[in-house]
Write a structure and sequence with these properties.
With 149 residues, the chain is mainly beta. Helix content is 5%, strand content 39%. The strands form 2 sheets. It has a 5-stranded mixed beta barrel with strand order 5-6-7-9-8. The chain has a 3-stranded antiparallel β-sheet with strand order 3-2-4. A hairpin with a 4-residue loop joins strand 6 and strand 7.
């Protein structure tokens, strides 16, 4: 499953450090694939990508695509932004729990208030110097309820 790719003008304020381990992630993100490392021994994803599983220390790591869908765990609005982001303030950041069990922090694109546990989806933001990812409300799953259990 691919995520939506949104072109963005300009350069990223803080480009990520791309390594041999993380390059597949950033290259895939630029093409609309949100993927990370997955441990074949303990059957768990790791994010950010790692060469060794932090859960069981296995080196049996493969790349697998994630759905990019999840739920909003927490969010806040930044009003007093660092200098590199002052032009964007106020802006929202969020902690998202993806369907596959990965919890990550990211920018939240929607300017309107969204409630905790609301469905969200990741998008790829493709700047002139490379991609980043962000989340926004998933209106296609807005009426769904969390799993009981």
């Amino acid at each position: 499953m691919s995520i939506e790719v949104l072109p963005c003008a300009g350069r990223r304020a803080y480009p990520p450090r791309v390594t041999a381990t993380t390059a597949p992630f950033w290259n895939g993100l630029a093409e609309g694939r949100f993927q990370s490392t997955y441990c074949e021994d303990c059957d768990r994803f790791t994010f950010p990508p790692k060469a060794i599983c932090p859960h069981c220390w296995s080196r049996r790591i493969i790349w697998r695509e994630l759905s990019g869908r999840g739920r909003l765990y927490a969010s806040t609005v930044i009003h007093a932004a660092p200098a590199a982001f002052q032009g964007d303030a106020p802006y929202s950041i969020a902690i998202v729990d993806l369907e596959e069990g990965v919890r990550l922090a990211t920018r939240l694109l929607d300017k309107e208030t969204i409630e905790l546990d609301q469905p969200v989806k990741l998008v790829a933001l493709c700047y002139e110097d490379g991609p980043l990812f962000a989340a926004r409300p998933d209106i296609t799953h807005a009426g769904s309820t969390p799993d009981a259990g």
